[in-house]
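Two folds, back to back.
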Amino acid sequence: MSATATTGKGLEGIIAGDTSICQVDQTSLIYRGYEIADLARHATFEEVAYLLLVGEKPDAEQLRFFRDELVANRALPRQVVEYLHAAGPMLAEGTAVPMDVLRTGVSILGNLDKDSQDNSPEANLRKAKRLLAKAPTIIGHMQCIIDGRELVAPNTGGDAKLSHAANLLYLMSGQRPSDDYVKTMDVSLILYAEHDFNASTFTGRVIAGTLSDMHGAVTGAIAALKGPLHGGANEAAMEMLKEIRTDIGPKNEVGAVTEWMHRAFETKRKLMGFGHRVYKNGDHRAGILHKMGRAIAERQGSEQVALFELGEIVQRIMLEEKSIFPNVDFPCGMTYFVMGIPVPQYTPIFVASRLSGWCAHIAEQHANNRLIRPIANYTGAPLRKWRS
């Protein structure tokens, strides 16, 4: 390694490139100049996706055309539907999980897309729209297959009158969601849409940096997002809360929760949904989603409120004893749970959102490319001879 090179385990603190898409720091999360709380309060996911992919806030006509394009591209090709049915036994046996099936579905889409080998800005935007439109359909059809139900609107990929968030929920359940569910899902998609050079986005950019195609880069990004140290943390956080509830019983006794947490601390167990590589003073997104999820829980009754109360006790103990804040995955797990979303679909839903950010980064990498090739700090054996 060069004497002037800078090292950082996990590339921590290393600036790996430039981007005009997103800025993440201790005090803010900004998508192309717009702060996340502003977007969560005033924008829709479709508007945010357009902002990320095109670069500017859409006017009314641009937004209408963008929405129409998404709706027109929702239905899945026959080959992908056939694969989803074939994957049913794999999901039932546990050799595959929904993120694996979604990853393969996206890869098949790449084999069928007429623009798949074209990395031009125009082709990348067309592919991004198609991927964004079809990901919720893959998720929804997959859940129907898991549940043993008929696919919802397979010929159209849903209801053209429904928004991206509403249609995702409809495809998964066959029921048209309530307004509060739609708003909460829409905001969660906005919060998850983009986050600069996180592990999955960086993976996508590394793949794109070789001048590989968008579908290939997105497939790699999905594989990176699957891990519990990244996107899979929302599933792991909810499973942790379910474990605590099983161990301590239905009453949220602070002492019992504290004992459980102390055992986790003593065994150095990693508690999912807490801490962040960048945010040391709290994740700007977590409070937004926690408030919305708790409001849904309060409308549903004491059993659902108890889940959020348990989560709040866990958060308080983590903050008071470890000075670690929750990240957005912690309230996401609780929020999706009270909305009745199956836990294994939490991270695929993350994909349905983050595709907007991934595709923007892949297009940005293609447009101003340099192969991403860091150097390693060798720590192996010194030079030696094979034969002495």
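---
second:
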Amino acid sequence: MRNLLLLLFALIAAPLHAEDWQARSTERDVVLKDFRFGTGEVMDTRIHVTTLGTPHRNAKGEIDNAVMILHGTGGSGWQFFRPQFADELYGPGQVLDITKWYVILPDNIGHGKSSKPSDGLRMAFPRYDYDDMVRAQHDMLVQGLGVKQLQLILGTSMGCMHGFVWGETYPGFARRLAPFACNAVAIAGRNRMWRKMSIEAIKADPLWNAGNYTEQPTSGLRTARSLSIIAGGNAWALQEQYPTRELAEEALDKAFNAPNPFGNDANDTIYWYDSSRNYDPSKDLEKITVPVLWINSADDFINPPEFGLPEKMVSRMPRAQFILIPFSPETKGHGTHTWAKFWKDDLAKLMAMQ
């Protein structure tokens, strides 16, 4: 799994699956013919999507049990098979029980098995942004899966931000929104700085060669990955796990010396970090009138709680609730968003709302 916000390499290892959710899933590619990017470029664009459960159709023949879960920067739909998420949500009687819900897990543009720079275009790939990604999700649902309404969009990190874009661009398409681990303001200040530093580290590596490399620029990727450890981690938990200099450095050495330690394609990584460049839903939050469950965690370096931004903005959405998960050695830094034990009861309350 490449998601910078979940991994922290091998520092916080996830357990093996208690259930084989992947074996219960179905995968397909939806090709959006002549998809137009915000840059004006047009190309056939592949959106890979994994689904769990079975679509149910109402008396009008419309699918009425679909929920979509959106991954974070560098992730894919497959990350939601991890036991800390799937085993808490998809089983019998659980809040997203797949015998009841049709769960849609797309790989966003630039990610996973969807169209991305590393397919061949490299830096000539259209410079997509969050608006493009959300529009592609919409077209994938309507054109590819025949879904014209969602019961829920749950998004983590980048997916959290996509949730706000969805709520403003397609009001009411999703009857409920659950944005986890983001803010509803422009990516600026330190948040933009560490992303930009990651981009520039890759570009400064001589092997990058303006994107036309013959081998991955591992020095630049190492710097980008190092920044992601700082951005994604829970400082309290890391201090307890690695309380001496020797233990901390040993953990890093193991991570960086593992097979394929960086994993990511350099150009794909540049596009990931840059795609948030013009995100800013702050002007139109009043358009979001459906129930919203907005959750951040107090140990999140990327979305610092001391700014108090959600508390100031949540009242602009008439049916929104904001919850801040307290900082503790058990929380997972920015990645708390994918450990469902922290928020599944609140999600159940959201799903009960009409």
